[in-house]
Amino acid sequence: MDSIPYTERRNAITMNIDTDTPEGIVDLIHECNMEVFNGYENHKGLSDDTILNKLDQFVSLVRTNLQTENSIIVLSGCGTSGRIGFLAATFFNELCLQQNLPPKYRYIIAGGNSALVTSIEACEDDPVIGTKELQCITDTYEHVLFVGITCGLSAPFVGGQLEYCLNNPQKFTPVLIGFNPISMARRTHVSKWINDTTFYDIALRMETTAGALVINPIIGPEPISGSSRMKGGSATKVILDTVFYLASCNNIMKASEVIEMYRTAVGTMEIEGQDIATVVEQAGECLLNNASIRYVGSSTFGIWGMIDASECVPTYNSSYNDIRGFMANDYFRKNLNPEPPLSFVSPALHEATPDDLSKTFENLPPSSIVVFIDKDYHLQKSLVEKLQEKGHHIVWIKILSTESFDLNSNVKIIDLSKCIPSTDVTMQYSLAEIILKLCLNTISTGAHVMKGKVFQNIMIDVRVSNVKLFYRAIDIIKSLAGVDYQTAERCLIQSIYQTNDTINDKTIDQHIMAVANNHDHVVPIALLMSLSNCSYTEAKLKMDKCPIIRDICTGTNQSST
Ligand code: F1P
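Structure for SIS domain-containing protein, as requested:
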């Protein structure tokens, strides 16, 4: 256990989350979230003095950069980490403009803009592309503060970029954000990294290089093991927002005081637990009945909806149609990096009017859920009534809105505005965002737990879409089926290629590419093969008869077939 990175460990709090009630699920996730601030075992999370000191150093670095000509701040990451970087860059650039300062924040996400709202996980294994993208974006600048984010201290895409910064210290100051000790950084080799370099080598160099900064608080395992979109993403957001806020408002506050504001706000979410649980229950039933969940919001609130929805695809192998987010204004498109035309693929709608939404949601399966995020013109009585007439559930997440709407009593309201203290506008918005993120993560995670996509606290239908997830899948099969590494790997590979033959002539990269064309339940089928010592074909047949994935672990499915 000791060698397992914290970000991949199982959290004792949620060991039985899969059999809990919706209220229980919400409480357990909340308890795990609070570990980010209050600590885990003998670690103090974001309240650790060493970490708080490092955050103050980070503030000085940002402040200096903001005041230096010909300099930029680049935020880079893969998956959720890249998305949080994008949102921070966009938000704080706006603040720069409001203060008549040049917008200095830039973002890089592995896989480009499409990866902001769709799952493109494989790019995180490529240190060469990471480096090229960094070179390209920083080419014309003299000074660069580079912030590489990888919750597990694992993504080679970010590792390659940090390596490039370390090799060019006259231009780059590198900062690494993640949530494991350096000793637990990933030591797996990836094919594209020359000299057999691993992330661990780079993390070690970062730790021992003067001027480089590593911010790696231990915030405890995720509620669903390995789901770093949850606590990892939240802690990343709190770190970035705290530092950029302090740097840009020339505030004499210390990082500790700002972190305390987040802790209090997130802590008070408990009072809305019952209402969130009601929505989790509806959302779970919705997925079980093959209905859909839709989020609608504008500006960054809308983007948080799209992000939460898109992350369910790799985590739970859900169909992209199960949960989708829709924008009600054009904020998202306006803030994207320039890319070649047609390169951007987004499942979401932009600038939807209530009429557009009404048409888009026309064919939603009965008893779907539409979640409206905060106040906006799209939340109109006529649209709500039209959707309700079709039997859909309507949820309104109220956050910063002070208005009350003429909505009928069948609209379920989650009132998160109670959690936002009165402080300045920038801080209020950031607090609103983190609370919204946690609420959406709870709804989508809870719904998938209820759908049976989690056994104990393990994501048993994870999509094997990069090297990290390939090894995670093998660990899941090994531990749940009690088989050795070789058996788990063999079954996984056979399930990926949908064959009963043994495959020995392919690389991990090829396995991952093959997953892109296989939308079956790759891990559950491999798990069944290992559990019942049967062939791919037999396991697939059993799987097809098993509507609830979790049942294969409890034996319900095996005995019924
Ligand atoms: C990056 C990431 C996660 C995603 C999935 C695959 O992880 O893309 O955001 O949820 O687990 O990996 P990391 O580099 O931040 O550890």
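DSSP finds 22 helices and twelve strands in the chain.
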